[in-house]
């Protein structure tokens, strides 16, 4: 998880035309250092999300440990609702609210990880006409989350980490 995220974020161009939202299954406290590390190693700003923070293009928002992150009216919302799939934060909540806002302009990416978090959210992304990418089994440390989404038939492309980086940069970069 964190290693793959650092790789993707550190390879982003200096300017992107969209915001990027990240949910990483980590306990409280650990996401602060992950956000700082990604910010230091990347060309664009990476922050640990805060309640009520305004969403801006050219920014990466990381859900803080032990808080679900959702989007509403151009702002970040954080809460401690019940865990789903045994995790908080859960990416399903983010994907579902992001799909409702961004509709067919949303790109969902699911990387290495245990469990099935993200599958229901990716299904919502597909329902709204968005596009889903899953990390390939070959490049995953744990294929649980990507494998769950792939098995449901809701993934548009299965790519290794380097291919995801190229595709992401092509789609979000400012020309």
Your description of this structure?
By secondary structure, the protein is of the alpha/beta class. It is built from 6 helices and 8 strands. It has helices at 2-10, 30-41, 91-102, 119-127, 144-151, 161-172; strands at residues 20-22, 45-48, 59-62, 68-72, 75-79, 107-110, 131-135, 157-159. The protein is globular. The model has no long low-confidence stretch (mean pLDDT 96).
What is this entry, summarized?
By secondary structure, this protein is of the alpha/beta class. Helices cover 35% and strands 19% of the residues. The radius of gyration is 14 Å and the shape is globular.
Distance between the termini: 29 Å
Biggest sheet, open or closed, and with what strands and sense? Answer: 3 strands, parallel
Shape: globular
The number of helical elements comes to: 6
Q: What is the N-to-C succession of helices and strands?
A: HEHEEEEHEHEHEH
Q: Give unreliable regions as ranges.
A: none
Helix/strand structural class: alpha/beta
* Percent helix range: 25-40%
Q: Could you give the count of β-strands?
A: 8
**Mean pLDDT level:** 96
Instruction: Give the strand order, joined by hyphens, for the main sheet.
Output: 1-3-2
What key attributes describe this structure?
175 residues; alpha/beta; three-stranded parallel β-sheet
Helices and strands in order, then pairings?
Layout lengths: L1 H9 L9 E3 L7 H12 L3 E4 L10 E4 L5 E5 L2 E5 L11 H12 L4 E4 L8 H9 L3 E5 L8 H8 L5 E3 L1 H12 L3
Parallel strand pairs: 1-3, 2-3, 6-7, 7-8
Antiparallel strand pairs: 4-5
